[in-house]
TrEMBL record, chain A:
GO cellular component terms, semicolon-separated: plasma membrane
Coiled-coil region list: none
Membrane topology annotation: Multi-pass membrane protein
UniProt key word Nucleotidyltransferase: no
Subcellular location: Cell membrane
Transmembrane segments: 12-37, 66-84, 96-114, 120-141, 150-172, 203-221, 242-265, 285-312, 324-345
PANTHER family: ABC TRANSPORTER, PERMEASE PROTEIN, GUANOSINE ABC TRANSPORTER PERMEASE PROTEIN NUPP
Descriptive protein name: Nucleoside ABC transporter membrane protein
Species name: Rhodovulum kholense
Pfam families: BPD_transp_2 (PF02653)
Single GO term (MF): transmembrane transporter activity
InterPro entries (UniProt xref): ABC_transp_permease
Keywords: Cell membrane, Membrane, Transmembrane, Transmembrane helix
UniProtKB/TrEMBL annotation, chain B:
Originating organism: Rhodovulum kholense
InterPro entries: ABC-Purine-Binding, Peripla_BP_I, PnrA-like
Gene3D superfamilies the UniProt entry points to: 3.40.50.2300
Keyword Signal listed: yes
PANTHER family for this protein: ABC TRANSPORTER SUBSTRATE-BINDING PROTEIN (PTHR43208)
Signal peptide: 1-22
Entry protein name: Nucleoside-binding protein
TrEMBL record, chain C:
Main location: membrane
Assigned keywords, A-Z: Cell membrane, Membrane, Transmembrane, Transmembrane helix
Source organism per UniProt: Rhodovulum kholense
Topology with respect to the bilayer: Multi-pass membrane protein
Gene Ontology cellular component annotations, sorted alphabetically: plasma membrane
Keyword Iron: no
Protein name: Nucleoside ABC transporter membrane protein
Residue intervals passing through the bilayer: 6-25, 37-58, 64-84, 96-115, 135-161, 192-211, 217-236, 243-260, 266-287
Subcellular location: Cell membrane
GO molecular function, one term: transmembrane transporter activity
Presence of the UniProt keyword Transferase in the record: no
């Protein structure tokens, strides 16, 4: 019989090997799926994983697009990972992302058509604050009433979605938009637009912020007292209390930081790639980022790589759709498989497989 | 060869070093907002694209992408199509408007066609259908068929296109039945079967025995069938699976002739940016078969109305017509101009309720 | 404005139908959460049940076989979650989200050939005289069989948790897996069974949508019902009978809103739609502020990974 035995410390070999193994297994399983749909499996896998990076026709466009797609995922996931490490579960990043976008866009729409240098910085501040404030609701309820933050933060996503709909249909609707829902396009408001910093590089402020967040989180976790407290709390809350960690302070910090980063991601998205507040502005980045955080094993560098991998499957999946006429659903199922393999195989880094019966100690 | 040069230019425009490949076929791209089997809007564009593909056969190459979210992802989908060598790309949802304009700027040699929008450029055309002409026929049928004199209307969003439909249907229902009342419910969605079913049920429960819809699923038909003795109309698609009852007729978007015409124009090198607003006459709007549930004389009346609109003898918005507040909109014999209709944002006299702000 | 146009009897009757899918799914998730597992994949399991049920009933012409297929489909999908979280010890939150993504894709693939079809009709149960009773007849005795099945399942789950030994063990596992394990209970096996039940119920709820409530198949047709079911469990504070109340509140808001609109009342639709969630948060706060009572209902080990290390 096979059983699992906990390793004293995570295996270095498997830490590196499981993602590779998972991707390989997904290619096989996905290939079977695509073959069942009557498509060439080899071509499909090549288009998804290879063409966005190296295809002569597309790559110079899709490589930068990887950054555009990965930017918000990484930014949100970094924030979430801090809390997750300490056992503080913010799963409402989607809501914080929406509120951040609405706060930032609200500032821009209120100042329209003022052309001044301070418009965009104000929007950034408002976006971060909006996300922070939305995350403070579960944080304060948790510290004051011990209310479960998983559930409150999730419930607030639905509330945020309703606020978004109300804004897109009402207060923020473009007065020159012929009555269609959706705000003015911020890309066409130069003082508020989050444009590419270098043409055709995909780099906009949100991507820059994502990279900064990766570095900051790395430094925080490895070099800073607060990072030590976060890690300690995650490993042993009791030990952390003896070490003088203030658990409420940590809840406020972790939820606040993840909310602010999610809010910033929303702001950069609404003022950049998306351009406007629309009813379905949120594309599930907040939820996908949770998966990204775990795929990256809550490690800043891991999250960077996981975010890029997710982005690759999105972009490659789009290419496969119109090049091979694959249905969008097949790509979704394929992504689901990839996540299953990545999450499932992760067990190998922390546990050893043992054959035979357990010896009696 | 012309293709080579334009690909090279578009690549340059993006600052790319992509290699152009030679291909004789005209490459046509389509992006859809929903899945191609949504039973309504996207499916109809897709089917029209298929008819177009059949028409040209091997002379063209067709690429499609479904379920493209409106927003950041639209721009990438369009760009990738342009990069892959499409000569003409059809963006088939209103929400694709700004991204289409943005991408068109980067690919001046690629033609773009945007459905239902109002922004055009050198290489961006717009096209839309005069659904309100079909709504006039629907209104007449609804006014004649109702027993309770209450007609339910499921609206999606309070935009001019939908308000035109409500006004047009109401005017022609009142014409044949002065006692008729409209109840309008806004679903705030184009496509959500469960919500549409709820909306239809709410209207039926409040006495409506004819349901018109400006949302895309067949769920209201199923709700009407369950309730019994309620009539419905197919929207965008024929929805013939619910004929002869509850579905007694439909307005069908028929984009195929337009797609054939525009792709042909690209082949001939005669493509120009223009705004097309096609109605019954051009075949872009079709009235689905009026079923046997409708008595013959009412059917003939409806067909006569359809023909008079088609021949241009009659315009559905012909005065005297007042606005909801009683002020004069169109004087006797006056016909609404396209500009006013394009931005129509008010109810006509007799409709109750307010257009949501 | 004409509020008299709304017939309260008919309104309540249609509330019951509108609430049935989320009630079914939430009843399943309640058992899952009572066993200490948080499965965020309800939406994915629901939509998988919706297509499995739809496809099977179109193929066989029997709605009953359709519901059976939905149960199997939902449970099968939930076993992926079970395998990953219970055996391979992956994180429940991330795995549940991945399950939703996968379920949405898989269902759309299975459903490719089924768009635009009509399922075989399900008639309301013929309850004879009962259905003709004034008021009560219309509200209580005029529905299809699944409405009564869903009510019966709530009662069964309540009785199971309250009166049976198995129910006690399930709750013990959710309260403290370490303690339950020490007492010799097979934590992983019990949780797997709970997860399977949750999947089956979610599948059933999805099939109610595609076979009776809407009835048709379209991609993504659950449109967030699975997420509402999750919120509903919390609102009910893990008590079966409160699920009923919550289901009518959550499921009813949309119906009520549309009815008010049809009656000519201008309602802020978004505000109304947000209220059940705000109420749920309030309930949560009240519950957690009162610690002695919270401990009785919220499973203490919810969402924690278990490994029998000793």
């Amino acid at each position: 019989m096979i059983r699992l035995e906990k390793r004293p410390s995570p295996s270095r070999v498997w830490t590196a090997a499981t993602p590779v193994l998972a991707v390989a297994l997904t290619m096989v399983a996905g290939g079977v799926l695509f073959a069942m749909l009557g498509k060439d499996p080899v071509a499909a896998i090549r288009i998804i994983f290879w063409d966005p990076l190296f295809n002569e026709q597309f790559a110079s466009y899709s490589r930068p697009q990887l950054l555009v797609k990965a930017g918000p995922l990484i930014l949100i996931a970094i924030g979430l990972s801090l809390g997750f490490r300490a056992g503080i579960w913010n799963i409402g990043a989607e809501g914080q992302y929406i509120i951040g976008a609405l706060s930032g866009a609200g500032v821009a729409l209120a100042l329209y058509p003022l052309e001044a240098w301070f418009v965009f910085p104000l929007m950034v501040i408002a976006g971060g604050l909006g996300g922070w404030a939305w995350a403070m609701i579960p944080a304060i309820l948790k510290t004051r009433f011990r209310t479960n933050e998983i559930l409150v933060s999730l419930l607030l996503v639905y509330v945020a979605e309703q606020i978004l709909a109300a804004m897109a249909l009402g207060l923020m609707r473009n007065p020159e938009g012929g009555g269609f829902p959706g705000s003015r396009n911020l890309q066409q408001y130069p003082a508020a637009a989050n444009t590419e910093l270098i043409a055709n590089s995909g780099m906009h402020w949100g991507v820059v912020a994502a990279f900064v967040a990766v570095i900051a989180a790395y430094v925080l976790l490895n070099r800073h007292m607060l990072g030590f407290q976060i890690r300690l709390t995650g490993q042993s809350p009791r030990a952390a209390r003896f070490a003088g960690v203030n658990p409420n302070g940590l809840v406020l910090f972790c939820l606040g930081a993840s909310g602010a980063l999610a809010g910033l991601a929303g702001l950069f998205e609404v003022s950049g790639p998306a351009g406007q507040v629309s009813i379905d502005f949120n594309q599930g980045y907040g939820f996908t980022a949770i998966i990204v955080a775990f795929l990256g094993r809550l490690n800043p560098v891991g999250i960077l790589l996981a975010g890029l991998l997710m982005a690759l499957t999105y972009i490659g999946g789009e290419l496969a759709q119109f090049m091979l006429n694959l249905p969008a659903a097949a790509i979704q199922a394929f992504q689901g498989m990839l996540l299953f393999f990545l999450l499932g195989l992760d067990v190998l880094t922390n546990y050893r497989l043992r054959w035979g019966k357990r010896e009696i100690a | 060869m012309k293709r080579r040069t334009f690909l090279a230019t578009s690549a340059l425009a993006l600052g790319l070093a992509g290699t152009a490949f030679a291909q004789d076929k005209v490459k046509v791209g389509f992006i859809y907002v929903g899945p191609v089997n949504d039973g309504g809007w996207s499916q109809h564009h897709h089917e029209s694209a298929m008819v177009m593909k059949e028409h040209f056969g091997d002379a063209i190459e067709l690429v499609e992408q479904e379920s493209v979210p409106e927003g950041a992802d639209t721009e990438r989908a369009l760009t990738q199509m342009a990069l892959s060598g499409c000569d003409i790309v059809f963006a088939t949802s209103f929400g694709f408007m700004d991204p289409t304009i943005n991408v068109a700027k980067k690919f001046p040699k690629v033609k773009f066609e945007h459905a239902t929008g109002y922004k055009r450029a050198e290489n961006v055309s717009t096209y839309s259908a005069r659904f309100y002409e079909g709504r006039a026929v629907q209104g007449l049928l609804a006014g004649r068929m109702t027993q309770s004199n209450v007609i339910g209307y499921i609206g999606s969003f309070p935009i001019p296109e939908v308000i035109r439909g409500i006004d047009s249907a109401f005017i022609h229902a009142r014409k044949v039945n002065p006692d008729v009342q409209f109840k309008v419910v806004w679903a705030n969605t184009w496509f959500d079967p469960a919500k549409e079913a709820d909306a239809a049920t709410a209207l039926i429960n409040q006495g409506a025995d004819v349901i018109l819809q400006h949302t895309d699923s067949t769920a209201p038909h199923a709700a009407a069938e369950k309730a019994g003795n309620v009539y419905t109309f197919g929207q965008a698609a024929d929805m013939a699976e619910y004929a002869p009852k509850p579905r007694i007729s439909s307005i069908i978007d028929n984009w195929a002739p337009y797609y054939i015409e525009r792709v042909q124009a690209v082949m001939d090198g005669t493509w120009e940016s223009k705004d097309t607003w096609g109605g019954i006459a051009s075949g872009m709007v079709k009235i689905g078969e009026i079923s046997d549930a409708v008595p013959a004389e009412i059917r003939d009346e409806a067909i006569a109305l359809e023909e008079s609109i088609s021949s241009g003898a009659y315009h559905p918005f012909t005065g005297p017509l007042n606005k909801q507040d009683g002020s004069v909109w169109l004087a006797e014999g006056e016909v609404a101009d396209d500009g006013t209709l394009a931005g129509l944002n008010f109810y006509v006299e007799g409709l109750s309720g307010e257009v949501p702000k | 404005m004409d509020l008299s146009a709304i017939d309260p009897v008919i309104l309540i009757a249609s509330l019951m139908v509108a609430s049935t899918p989320i009630l079914l799914a939430a009843t399943g998730e309640l058992i899952v959460e009572k066993s200490g597992v948080l499965n965020l994949g309800v939406e994915g399991m629901m939509i998988t049940g919706a297509i499995c049920g739809f496809a099977a009933s179109v193929q066989t012409g029997s709605p009953a076989l359709g519901f059976l297929a939905a149960i199997i489909g939902g449970a099968a999908l939930s076993m992926i979650f079970g395998l990953l979280t219970q055996v391979l010890m992956s994180n429940q939150v991330a795995t549940g989200l991945a399950l939703t993504l996968f379920g949405l894709g898989l269902s759309a693939l299975i459903g490719q050939g089924y768009a635009g079809m009509k399922p075989p009709p399900t008639r309301p149960l013929d309850l004879g005289v009962l259905s003709d009773l004034p008021v009560i007849g219309k509200i209580v005795f005029s529905h299809d069989a699944m409405v009564y099945v869903s009510l019966a399942l709530v009662a069964l789950v309540w009785a199971f948790l309250r009166y049976t030994r198995a129910g006690l063990i399930l709750r013990a596992v959710g309260e403290s897996h370490e303690a339950a394990h020490a007492l010799g209970y097979k934590v992983v096996r019990i949780r797997l069974m709970a997860i399977g039940f949750g999947g089956a119920m979610a599948g059933l709820g999805g099939a109610y949508l595609s076979l009776i409530r809407v009835p048709q198949w379209t991609e993504g047709m659950t449109a967030g019902a699975g997420w509402i079911a999750l919120a509903l469990v919390v609102f009910a504070s893990w008590r079966p009978w409160r699920l009923l109340l919550g289901a009518y509140l959550f499921g009813g808001i949309t119906v009520l809103q549309l009815n008010l609109q049809a009656a000519g009342v201008a309602v802020p639709a978004e505000f109304l739609s947000a209220t059940p969630y705000l109420v749920t948060i309030l309930v949560l706060v009240l519950m957690s502020a009162d610690r002695s009572r919270a401990a009785l209902h919220a499973p203490a080990d919810l969402g924690k990974t278990f490994h029998a290390s000793s």
